[in-house]
UniProtKB/TrEMBL annotation:
InterPro entries: AMP-bd_C_sf, AMP-dep_Lig_C, AMP-dep_synth/lig_dom, ANL_N_sf
Organism name: Streptomyces endocoffeicus
PANTHER family with a match to the protein in the record: BLR5969 PROTEIN
Name of this chain's protein: AMP-binding protein
Top-level taxonomic group: Bacteria
AMP-dependent synthetase/ligase domain mapped to chain residues: 83-310
Region (Disordered): 1-24
Xref: SUPFAM superfamilies: Acetyl-CoA synthetase-like (SSF56801)
Residues spanning the signal sequence: none
Residue ranges occupied by any AMP-dependent ligase C-terminal domain in the UniProt entry: 365-458
Length: 474
């Protein structure tokens, strides 16, 4: 296959000729079974490399009785134990700063990204120059599949911080030869400036989160600018579900009149655009020759048949500094078998990544993903732009309330019926009743990054129950 070597090496001058839809035609269209044979051979190379250079993996596999030479097929690979994010954090705490799964000398690390640490100890990503270039080439290749070209101006509208997503999109657009506009987001008042700069610079491609795109559309309208007049022809997203959720996607398309592409896997996985759309449709392809993706049973971590729902497990095939080998995502998706009809012979996730196992909550025995509520609420005529999901417990019964902003053009006398229609639809989709509470538009703050819409008051009640009252001994 084109440039299929280990360690990865790419021709930095390569760019497809005008009119060619594939960056690497052979790699992207070859029979999936033949690609799987080559991937199995590459996995052995990556495992042997990690065995020799990463005490973390050697220790883990030793304990499981596995050696890289014993992995002859992808079925054998399913026996390799998964890696959990908490293991990576613990290993970095014991082996600062990059952990004992760093396979190169610390002196070779030239870029540092990482997690915010809001859910525990921050995880540092030590990225060597070879990996930085591999990610750039991989992202350029995927962005080419989205129709992005050197003539485009690409706005990077997510924070240029520790967040790896922004930098991956930046370096990919740069490698592709496009004009890159790293405007970022997050500073109060910056979104209004974004609108002005987009018009001034003739931005044609937008990268960010779906939530921020919707916020940008609202701000543009408040500034007297029709979002569709900004001239965007393509928008690609990562960071949260949305670009493959029909109601969110349709709101973005309606606002901007642009093609919409979903993408993204995990912060720990680079290139994170290993899951990415190559057509203006919901869903993403698994670019298996960049990062081998298995959709697995969340309990046993064995690969599930096509058509099943499970959690992705990722193995990087081009990383040399901090390779991820069977990294458990904790996300939820459903996959379909490869088909040449989509122009590339990769497995397909028709709804992209639509939730996380740990984001799922249970109400009266029903497992509910927040994205399912988003899909119902955002599709309702008269939706005002934001909503919140509030879970409470009254006596022994869990209750679900959805506070929904309404469009100010709606007569207040119509709101009870409007709320009832949403409630009925939620009951049909979720299997449990939900109280819908209409609230005025702009009741809720808009996000400059990722939306957080679920408030679980049951956890607050549990904490209160565990804490002693003033003056009472615990």
């Amino acid at each position: 296959m084109e440039q299929w070597v280990w360690p990865p090496r790419y021709d930095e001058t390569h760019r497809p000729p005008d009119g060619q839809t594939h960056w690497f035609p052979r790699r992207e269209t070859m029979p999936a079974e033949r690609r799987d044979e080559l991937i199995a051979a590459r996995i052995r190379e990556v495992m042997a490399y990690a065995w020799d250079n990463a005490p973390f993996y050697r220790r883990k596999w030793d304990e499981a009785g596995i050696h890289p030479s014993s992995v002859r097929t992808l079925a054998d690979f399913e026996k390799v134990p998964v890696v959990r994010k908490e293991e990576l954090r613990a290993d970095q705490a014991a082996n600062e700063p990059f952990g004992s799964y760093l396979c190169v000398s610390p002196d070779e690390v030239k870029h540092i990204n990482g997690t915010s640490g809001t859910t525990g100890r921050p995880t540092a990503f030590g990225i060597g120059e070879r990996d930085w270039r591999s990610v750039a080439n991989a992202h350029a290749r995927v962005m080419w599949a989205m129709g992005i070209r050197p003539s485009d101006t690409v706005l990077i509208a997510s924070p240029l911080s520790l967040y790896w997503g922004s930098w991956g999109a930046y370096t990919g657009a740069e490698r592709l030869g496009a004009r890159v506009f790293p405007f970022g987001a997050g500073t109060p008042g910056q979104t209004a400036r974004t609108v002005r700069w987009m018009r001034q610079m003739g931005v044609t491609v937008f990268y960010g989160t779906p939530s921020y795109a919707l916020h940008l559309a609202e701000v543009a309208a408040d500034e007297g600018v029709d979002p569709a007049s900004l001239g965007l022809r393509a928008m690609f997203f990562s960071g949260e579900p949305g670009a493959s959720i029909p109601s969110t996607r349709s709101r973005i398309v309606e606002a901007f009149g642009a093609e919409v592409y979903d993408s993204g896997s995990m912060a720990e996985v680079a290139p994170w655009m290993n899951l990415a759309a190559a057509a203006d449709e919901p869903g993403v392809l698994c670019w298996q020759d960049l990062v081998y993706t298995e959709v697995c049973d969340p309990a046993g971590h064995r690969r599930l048949p096509y058509g099943a729902e499970g959690t992705p497990v990722y193995t990087t095939l081009e990383r040399t500094s901090q390779p991820m080998i069977r990294l458990l995502s904790g996300d939820l998706t459903r996959w379909e078998a490869p088909t040449a009809e989509r122009g590339r012979t990769y497995p397909f996730l028709p709804r992209g990544i639509y939730g996380r196992i740990d984001d799922m909550f249970t109400i009266r025995g029903e497992n509910i993903q927040p994205s399912a509520i988003d899909d119902v609420v955002m599709a309702v005529p008269g939706y005002g732009g934001e909503h919140r999901v509030v879970i409470s417990r009254e006596t022994a019964m869990d209750t679900l309330a959805v506070q929904v902003e309404y469009d100010p053009g709606q007569p207040e006398s119509s709101l009870p019926g409007w709320a009832e229609r949403i409630s009925n639809r939620l009951r049909t989709v979720l299997g449990v009743g939900a109280t819908v509470v209409p609230v005025r538009q702009h009741t809720f703050d808009r996000t400059e990054f990722k939306a957080r819409r679920v408030i679980d008051n049951r956890e607050l009640l549990r904490r209160m129950a565990d804490e002693p009252l003033p003056g009472r001994e615990p």
